[in-house]
Write the structure tokens for this entry.
Amino acid sequence: MEKILDVTKRFASALEGAGIPYRVVGGFAVFLHIDPVDPMAARLTKDVDVAIDRHDLDAIRAALTPHGFTHRHVAGVDMFLDAKHPGARSAVHAVFIGEKVRPEYLEPVPGSTPVRERKGILIAPVADLVRMKLTSFRLKDKVHIQDLDAVGLITPEIEQSLSEPLRQRLAEVRATE
């Protein structure tokens, strides 16, 4: 927990210091939403994913370099390797707001206003995470949906805001619980 939190805080601090918007997404954001509600239901992930604006990429590189992060583009993935904790698993992986992560995905990465969680990190709101998890729809994404749902974070309002294909996927996940 300390390693992933350290990497995230240093990454976030560098971007906030430079005035560059970001939001943590993915499994770590799910963890950060669930932990205050039910710490025993929160599953820690091994990496950090952030949603950023592609137009900010050069400014992000410049802001992160003095903090020990190096940008790499590997196998179609933009990531920022941390010199303090080397290795792709401890890298911060970037996805781009308003773009599909993969061409076959149903929806692009949403860019709603992030929320500041209790450790001071900006994270995507639950509604955005639900959309992203239902769009990716891998096994780990389905488990994250189950976890969010089990602690009551997927509200009727979030469900109603989903597109019909994503509502169908949510129903599929709920049917397997």
About this structure: The CA atoms of residues 16 and 22 lie 8 Å apart. The mean pLDDT is 93. The helical segments are 2-17, 26-37, 57-64, 126-136, 139-150, 156-161, 164-175.
